[in-house]
Every structure is written in C-alpha cells, then in structure tokens.
Design a protein that fits this description.
This protein is an alpha/beta fold. It has 13 helices and 13 strands. Helices cover about 30% and strands about 20% of the residues. The chain has an eight-stranded mixed β-sheet with strand order 3-12-13-8-7-4-5-6. The chain has a three-stranded antiparallel β-sheet with strand order 9-10-11, with no helix packed on it. Bound molecules: S-adenosylmethionine. Pfam families: Methyltransf_12 (PF08242).
C-alpha cells in the first residue's frame, strides 16, 4: 500500500528521517547510543516495536531491490531533465510556500550522531582563545559576532549548514550549543526557506547568519573566507543536486574548512524504500529521480560518497550505512529504510601517515 504523500514527498519518509520520536520516547532518545540498539533477532517479533536498528539485508532482498531499480531506469527526455535542473530552486520555493515549516521536523538523533555540533562546553581557557570579546565570560553581556570583516569573524567555533531548509538543524544547534564563541551560518538556494529561517523567533542575528546560496553554482561566493569553518553539515541535501555537480560542490565546501575541520553528511542510501517506490517515468538518470513536486533526489552508495570526499582532499572518520526496518503496526506494514552517514576531516597540511609517511590525501586514494 502506498504511503501518504505530501506533494510528492512521502510523509513517512520525513517521519522516518526523524526516527519517529513521539514525546514519551524523549528520555529513551537521550540515552540512545548511535544508531540505536533495538535488534530484530526473532522475525516473529517484528510488529512488537515501531523500528528495528541495523537490519541485515539478505542477498535475495538486495537482488530484488536491484532488479526493481533496473526495471525503472529509463531516463526522462533531455528537455524535461533540463527543465527540472534550471528551475530546481523554484520547485523547492513552491515546496516551502506550501509546507512552510511544518514538514521537516527537528531531529532527535542530531547530537547523538553528530556530537561535533555541540562539543562539550570548552574550558575557560580554550573558550577565550581567539576571543575578541573581553566581556564574554561573565554571562551577562549580549555577544555579537556580527562586527568584523564578515559575519562571525570574531567567533572561535563556526558551523555552516548547507541546504538548511527551514532550520530544523540550525535552531537545535543554537539552542543546544552554549559555547559563547559559536557562530552558525546556514544557507539554502530556496529564498522562501531562508526567509522562513530569518522570520523564526529563534533566529538570532548575533549568533547566526542565514543567506541564499546555490551550492551547485561555482561562481557564487560564500560570506566567509576559505579555511574558516570548523564544521559543515549537509542533511539530505547533496542528494538534491544533479550528480554532475556533486564533486565540485563538495570540493568547494572542503576549501572552506579549517585544517582539522569536519564535513558531516546524512543522506539517502541505495535501495532505500523511497527509491524503490518511485513509479515509472520519474527516473532522470541512474539512481536519480524527480518527485511529483519537481524536487529531485539521488540514492548514494558508501563508495560514491567516499570517492567525492577523498577527491576533495578530505580524510575518512566515518562512513556507514544505517539500515532500519520501520514498522506500521496498525497496518502491519514493513518499510526498509537506508541512509548513509559520513564524517570526513580536512587534514593538517603537514600531517603524514605514521606507518607509510604518506600524506593523508594519498592514503585516501588507495
Ligand atoms: C530534503 S531538504 C532538507 C532540508 C534540511 N537540510 C533538513 O534536513 O530539514 C533539501 C534542501 O536542500 C536545498 N537544496 C537543494 N539543492 C540545493 C542547492 N543546489 N543549493 C543549496 N540548497 C539546495 C533545498 O532547497 C532543500 O531545502
């Protein structure tokens, strides 16, 4: 049975991305180790819970998924493809005009999976490092990071979210990370989404800078200089780009990282339920589809992402696949979700592998 669809994007898809966290699960969520630990060991128990973690796929299941994808791989004509490419931002504007900030919900897994977004409050000494605000540590004075050659110039910890939508990652970061040296940038190519972020009562221009930016446009400038960011986060965003634009977009982002800075990503994995559910006539190219509302989505393998990040000169810290079995107990339905999660770090220029003496970039190529 088909899942409920909101303007082409499945509601279940969103709910599942949020790991279905009803309010009575919040304490459980806080304790939840990465990716959860509810394993389905007895298939007869499948409808006992809403979700099962780290589900193994059998060879037959993988082969059936591959067959289904191959049967639906006839690409749309070139004119149609171009139309979706040229107007990509407009389709997302329409999406946000319809759904405003009701669609993507805050992610309860954000800080368990990506503790880099709110590292433990720094010691008094390290918080002062690079601190140009002598009054900062008395906790009584408003701190503005807007006074400098660029927004956030005087900050000591800079995070940027690309493809921020309506701020479901940015606002939790601002709320959770109480480092006075924090500054958060967020951008999206949908001007409607950026307006929604800026009009949110939680938007604080002294700690945050939202701007319109098309990641796939190599001529578009970022407001901060190269080598200035500690963390860049992409959540279900790279998949929305044309595959031909992915490598250069990641390489451009890598330039913005400080040495030691981290690029974090969570996105759709190959054979996710959303991929298998696409009807014929929605395929743009291999594993790349257009939804009913004109927004596009790609489904990654771990190797593809590894190659993008390594070619951008980054070093693997984490690259894993999260396979989850989602259960609709009322309807006795099972849904297999697949997400990939990556953390890649920009090496320090002089860093050599201790065993080989090679630079980390070289090590990544092998
Ligand atoms: C699936 S939504 C995810 C939104 C947000 N990251 C979240 O998790 O709620 C994808 C977002 O990427 C944005 N996007 C797509 N292509 C983009 C591009 N080339 N440059 C910047 N943003 C883009 C869309 O406007 C949309 O807000």
């Amino acid at each position: 049975m088909a899942a409920p669809v909101a303007n082409g994007v499945s509601v279940e898809e969103n709910v599942v991305e949020n790991h279905q966290a009803p309010s009575n699960q919040s304490i459980e969520d806080q304790k939840r180790p990465q990716f959860g630990t509810r394993f389905l060991t007895d298939p007869r128990q499948v409808f006992q819970h809403n979700a099962w973690d780290n589900v193994e796929w059998s060879e037959e299941q993988e082969a059936a998924a591959r067959k289904k994808v191959e049967a639906n791989s006839q690409p749309l004509p070139a004119e149609k493809q171009e139309e979706y490419d040229t107007n990509a931002d407009k389709y997302w504007n329409d999406f946000y005009t319809i759904h405003e900030n009701r669609f993507f919900k805050d992610r309860h897994w954000l800080f368990t999976e990506f503790p880099e977004l709110a590292p433990k409050y720094k010691s008094h000494e390290s918080a002062q490092e690079g601190d140009t605000h002598p009054d900062r540590d008395n906790g009584m004075v408003d701190i503005s990071h807007q006074d400098g050659e660029y927004p956030g110039a005087s900050s000591s910890y800079r995070i940027m979210e690309v493809g921020c939508g309506v701020g479901n990652t940015v606002f939790p970061i601002l709320k959770t990370n109480n480092d006075p040296g924090l500054f958060v940038y967020c951008c999206d190519f949908s001007s409607t989404a950026v307006e929604l972020v800026k009009s949110n009562p939680e938007y604080d221009a002294d700690r945050c800078h939202a701007f319109v930016h098309d990641l796939s446009d190599m001529s578009a400038e970022f407001p901060m200089p190269d080598g200035s960011l500690d963390v860049i986060i992409l959540i279900f965003v790279l998949s929305a780009l044309h595959p031909d634009k992915m490598q250069e977009s990641i390489s451009r982002l890598a330039q913005l990282l400080k040495p030691g800075g981290m690029l974090l990503l969570r996105d759709y994995g190959r054979y996710d339920m959303a991929q298998l559910r696409f009807k014929k006539g929605r395929c743009l190219s291999d594993n790349f589809y257009v939804r009913g509302d004109g927004t596009r989505v790609y489904f990654f393998t771990q190797d593809e992402l590894h190659s993008f990040f390594c070619d951008a000169g980054l070093q693997k810290v984490q690259n894993l696949v999260d396979r989850r079995l989602q259960v609709n107990r009322g309807k006795q339905l099972t849904m297999y979700r697949v997400w990939v999660q990556c953390k890649y770090q920009k090496p320090h220029p002089d860093h050599k592998d201790s065993k080989t003496g090679n630079s980390e970039e070289k090590q990544c190529e092998s």
